[in-house]
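If you are new to this repository, start here. Below is one unmodified record pulled from the training split, so you can see the exact layout before writing a loader.
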Amino acid sequence: MGSLALPKSGTVYVDTAVVIYSVERHALYEPLLRDLWACTGERLDLVSSELTLLETLVVPMRLRDAALQQAYEHALLDTDLRLLPLTREVLCRAAGLRAAIPALRTPDALHAATAIGCGCAGFITNDPGFRRVPGLPVILLDRFLHEG
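And here is the target side for that same chain:
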């Protein structure tokens, strides 16, 4: 397994899948993400959207899995990860992205718009669809799985 190519400094945006892989300790991706979490607050400002809270809590709530719900809440609310708000500016930017890229789903447009708005140096995801978004510095996890 390779290591994740992270910016030397700056703001790094993580999408919901990154949080899920980490909290649920996904066998392939969680080891790859350890360096990311270790750099948080040290040289990287790690951010996501408040939307990530919604997206991660649906399954634990549906399953009535209080432990998993608490693990997500801890990861998102009690760590150095900052959740950025869904402001009117973000919503308008997301609408513009959806208008320009019809295949981009609303949640993905909100993540991309939030990341662009904070001027992120990296956008960590496992969804290659984000590469369609101009100016978004996408870092695909799968790219680093077999490097080394």
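Two things worth knowing about this chain: The domain at 10-145 is CATH 3.40.50.1010 (Rossmann fold). The helical segments are 16-23, 30-39, 51-63, 66-77, 88-100, 106-117, 142-145.
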